[in-house]
Amino acid sequence: MTKTVPADVQNNVANHLNSHALPSYLDANNLGPWGQYLQQIERVTPHLGNLSRWVETLKRPKRILTVDVPIERDDGSIAHFEGYRVQHNMSRGPGKGGVRFHQDVTLSEVMALSAWMTVKNAAVNVPYGGAKGGIRVDPKTLSRGELQRLTRRYTSEISMIIGPTKDIPAPDVNTNEQVMAWMMDSYSMIEGNLSTGVVTGKPISLGGSLGRREATGRGVFVVGREAAAKRGVEIKGARVAVQGFGNVGGVAATMFNGAGAKIVAVQDHTGTVVNEGGLDVARLHEHVAETGGVGGFAGAEACLDREAFWGIESDILIPAALEQQITEENAPRIRTKIMLEGANGPTTPEADDILAANNVLVVPDVLANAGGVTVSYFEWVQDFSSFFWTEDEINARLTRIMQEAFSAVWDVAQQKNVSLRTATFILACTRVLQAREVRGLYP
Ligand code: GLU
């Protein structure tokens, strides 16, 4: 990252981080995703008019909480993990965003993810600010009991800053409905009353919403259809390549396949599988359920090495794994027409420029993957009113919100001659900073 980040941004980050005496692993030579986000803010600032006097608000999280999460292991030893909850902005509503359990979680990453939630929530106009949480842990190394103790202790450590009208966590990488159920239960026990609205992405039996599990992938599909229409790509027969086959990539692949597209390549942490005639997506799901990943799938014609994935020719490419996958190194090799960012932050700003020059239409994360938090919003509303909607109602409302957001972003991009990412940031940051301005400073 170092060499690709402009000096002024590096200085900003270095000053910012040093002045707050953040932990040493977050040094300015390894800016990571937060540096990536700051560059995106630099790009939108010239388009904010008078609101740019508030733009500094977006360059620093409102609140950062770092917590030690100790648990007793099954063998009786004590293990400590570092966890975070970052509330980036709350001008438009309570904090909202997922919790990630991953061995590579850093504060820089959680800060960036929280900021992208601020932008995402404003882009689809749900009444939330942005927040994110995470624990640096490989959950595959924990037993179910250890995972439960970790989740409950983390919830207790952040319980003073979360709540149904304060900050509402949700699933993200390696967290699921069960983890949300434990978080909801822990928070409710601490508060002494049932508090279903404190997290979203819960099991249906516990105030969860129909359609939430599929919502992010469905949203990727909906904006993909819109983008394809603009770019003159037929979904029927389109060649689709997907990185990540979890809750986002797996669902998106199924939906594109259902609409007649061929899934020609899938990559995850276990391998890269390719079939020119189209992978059998249902069988691939079965294989993943049995083995934990796509690697070794019998229905693949070829298994490529990791980097070769980016050179596969496609009409639609869906990065749906982790951030900073598409860089100035591999972006020149990408041969696709439309890229739908199912993951958060998969593309560095330098790669963005290369893709634009190569005429790849990039639908950015803060728009493309907003379907998840949109149905989280529906879940939260349903919990408050204890009145639950049908799956058809949810899907219809989700589709309408995603289509309207895409169309508004498209219009801004045309008017200002900017990328869809900058257009989304223009719309979203304007909403956030208008709220910031009209609220005014306290005291
Ligand atoms: N973790 C998801 C995201 O990155 C969903 C967050 C939520 O539903 O609050 O958008």
From TrEMBL:
GO terms for molecular function: glutamate dehydrogenase (NAD+) activity; nucleotide binding. Residues 209-440 form the Glutamate/phenylalanine/leucine/valine/L-tryptophan dehydrogenase C-terminal domain. It comes from the Bacteria. GO terms for biological process: L-glutamate catabolic process. Keywords: NAD, Nucleotide-binding, Oxidoreductase. The lineage of its organism: Bacteria, Pseudomonadati, Pseudomonadota, Betaproteobacteria, Burkholderiales. This is Glutamate dehydrogenase. InterPro entries: Aminoacid_DH-like_N_sf, Glu/Leu/Phe/Val/Trp_DH, Glu/Leu/Phe/Val/Trp_DH_C, Glu/Leu/Phe/Val/Trp_DH_dimer, Glu/Leu/Phe/Val_DH_AS, Glu_DH, NAD(P)-bd_dom_sf, NAD_bind_Glu_DH. The record marks 172 as: Important for catalysis. Belongs to the Glu/Leu/Phe/Val dehydrogenases family. Substrate binds at residues 96, 120, 376. The active site is at residue 132. Transmembrane segments: none annotated. NAD(+) binds at residues 216, 247. SMART domains: ELFV_dehydrog. It comes from Pseudoduganella lurida.
